[in-house]
Recover the amino acids of this structure.
């Protein structure tokens, strides 16, 4: 196998992964930095920064530079990526390495420019190739992009859900829904507060989401700890599975609606490939208990979660980095 000098980056709303050609995934961290309020210096990055979220440390402001799949704070995104490059031990002396960077299929021109601006500010200077996330997800799910066969991908991330039909490395139809795991978290947080009078932190909410999901399993309730909204005293609560499931239902309905919309618009020549290739679910949200079954029931064709869905996009981006010459051309800068 021929390795190009370069990196592939999955800059996600919740998690960022950096793959270094010839070495593999070198960074897999939450997309967060902690900035010293007095000096403006980056004090902590990734997991260490994310762990401080919502804990209100006096001297550090925690920033999540992405929102809904795109950069919301350019300076913070550059600082975070630069810190990740350091973690990946990328040599600064490298001569213009290739950087394959994934972004939502329906990102606007401004959002694309902002990603390029972030990449151009990095050292070493990279030669950037933007790749639509569904294309990378399809490659990561094992579809042979060079063969021109059809694929149906649903990537449920933290900030966005990408649904796409592809023929080889080309997007045929795509819809990007700016809702994902974070919206599910907010919905659960809101329902527990209004129905049980309990304020939950982010980790408690995520744990409810991951254990209960759509509530089809054997779990009928899940224990959690929060702060009583009235007395402000911590308390333990048993949250009914039905409360969690109905809180996330509107987000799940929106995802299913996008899948159905896309399915009803498939070119007849791709129909067989899509049915035989199954709907492939990628992204962390694909792990939501019950989601694949719901999508399968609504779509009427099999839906399966890809192996290691949180790494699906970076696996595909890595393939594009290493075998890019054999694949359709992507936007280069
Ligand atoms: N077992 C699980 N069940 C439900 N949700 C999960 C599970 N594991 C992770 N998640 C959710 O997946 C999301 C993170 O997924 P991922 O890393 O694919 O997103 P991202 O790439 O950072 O976001 P985006 O692609 O939208 O920019 C989070 O919302 C997280 O809570
Ligand atoms: Mg993602």
């Amino acid at each position: 196998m021929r390795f190009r000098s370069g990196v592939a980056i999955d800059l996600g709303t919740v998690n960022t992964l950096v793959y270094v050609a010839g070495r593999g995934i070198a960074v897999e961290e939450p997309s967060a930095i902690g900035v010293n309020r007095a000096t403006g210096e980056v004090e902590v990055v990734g997991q260490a920064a994310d762990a401080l979220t919502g804990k209100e440390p006096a001297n550090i402001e925690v920033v999540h530079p992405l929102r809904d799949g795109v950069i919301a704070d350019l300076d913070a995104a550059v600082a975070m990526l630069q810190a990740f490059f350091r973690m990946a031990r990328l040599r600064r002396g490298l001569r213009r390495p290739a950087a394959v960077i994934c972004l939502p299929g329906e990102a606007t021109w401004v959002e694309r420019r902002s990603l390029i601006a972030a990449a151009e500010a990095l050292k070493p200077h990279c030669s950037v190739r933007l790749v639509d996330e569904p294309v990378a997800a399809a490659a990561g799910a094992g579809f042979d992009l060079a063969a021109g066969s059809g694929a149906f991908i649903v990537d449920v991330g933290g900030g966005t859900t990408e649904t796409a039909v592809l023929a080889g490395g080309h997007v045929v139809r795509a819809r990007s829904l700016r809702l994902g795991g974070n919206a599910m978290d907010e919905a659960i947080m809101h329902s527990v507060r209004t129905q049980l009078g309990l304020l939950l932190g982010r980790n408690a909410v995520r744990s409810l989401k991951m254990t209960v999901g759509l509530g089809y399993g054997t779990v009928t309730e899940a224990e959690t700890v929060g702060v009583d909204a009235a007395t402000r005293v911590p308390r333990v609560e048993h949250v009914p599975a039905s409360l969690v499931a109905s809180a996330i239902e509107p987000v799940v309905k929106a995802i299913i609606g996008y899948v159905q919309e896309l399915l009803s618009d498939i070119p007849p020549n791709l129909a067989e490939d899509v049915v035989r290739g199954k709907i492939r679910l990628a992204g962390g949200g694909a792990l939501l208990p019950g989601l694949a079954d719901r999508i399968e029931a609504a779509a009427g064709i099999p839906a399966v979660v890809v192996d290691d869905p949180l790494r699906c996009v970076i696996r595909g981006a890595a393939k594009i980095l290493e075998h890019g010459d054999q694949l359709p051309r992507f936007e280069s800068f």
User: Anything to note?
Assistant: The longest strand covers residues 170-177.
